[in-house]
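Support reply, case 0932

Customer input (verbatim):
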Amino acid sequence: MIAAARKRCLCVCVPKCYGQEAIMRLKALRLNADGLKAKRDAEFVYIPLARKPTTDEWVSLQASIPQIQPLTQDFEERRRKTLAEELSGTIPQNLIAKLPRAFDVIGDIAIVEVPPELEAYSKLLGSAMLKLHSRIRTVLAKRGPVAGTFRLRQLVLLAGEPKTDTFYKENGCMYHVDVVRAYFSPRLSGEHRRVASLVGKHETVVDMFAGVGPFAILIAKTAENAMVYAVELNPAAFELLKENVRLNRVEKRVFPVFGDASQVADVLRGKADRVIMNLPERSVEFVESACKVLKPTGGVIHYYSFARQPASVENVKTQFLNALGKHGRRCQGFLEARRVRETAPYEWQVVLDAKVS
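Our regenerated output:
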């Protein structure tokens, strides 16, 4: 890291607990100033902006990040040595353009996708990432897609400590995560916050595919007197879920339930004001179960699926409505229907917030 001059510019000020989410939102909108270092005090994070947000962008930021405020501050200009610079002269010059531009960081573990052309240099890549990012202790490489009943991905060690578990802080909550034994994506941080912000006082929520608890625990910590039944089939994820419930002190609000959502639905029949269905590969198979756990008077279903081009959000709506109609429920309308994130070239994860009677 090379220190440089200071620069005065527009920034946003957010409470520390929303710092990570704010940075991700700003990056998605291409508003963050890469060449300037964010700074912190006892309560707030100050994130420099590359430009002034448009009116629509600012409305979106205010809706998703509580207490966000615009300010003008002085920031230190810093330039981190790039991966390309670190590896220049070590790998063939014609492969520099193939270096990954982004990777996931969960706690002190980095997970990177290595292009086939760079496979022979993957260990060098991992070592370079450790050198450039002091907070990373382990670099793992993806081997194949997320697959199987438990939605797991094979990962191999490139550099650093030989481990797969870590502690990860998100939206003011702490999670013990094992990236090989339980599914977890830091790219859903904003979606966890968005859904939690919609839960009303005294609501009962059924999280049908809870994983290690990022939806359930955040809801319990932020929604007044809300109660969450967190259902999980993967034994390893279920043990982490129970640990995270204790770690975040929400034992009186989150009730872990071990089992398949389709079988647990009979036990939880008619309890839910709100149902979360974050199993995009197979959510359509569990619409009947969601209908069972929803109260007879209805409620909201957060339905996640994938849309692959040329399919669109409208195709996902049709899929959901067809499944819903087979099980005695009716959709009164969609409160939200949009792409959440790109998951592969020409493929997106989609969410529908459906008001169901």
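We compared this against your earlier run and they match. Two observations from our side: The two ends are 57 Å apart (CA to CA). The chain has a mean pLDDT of 93. Please reopen the case if you see a mismatch on your end.
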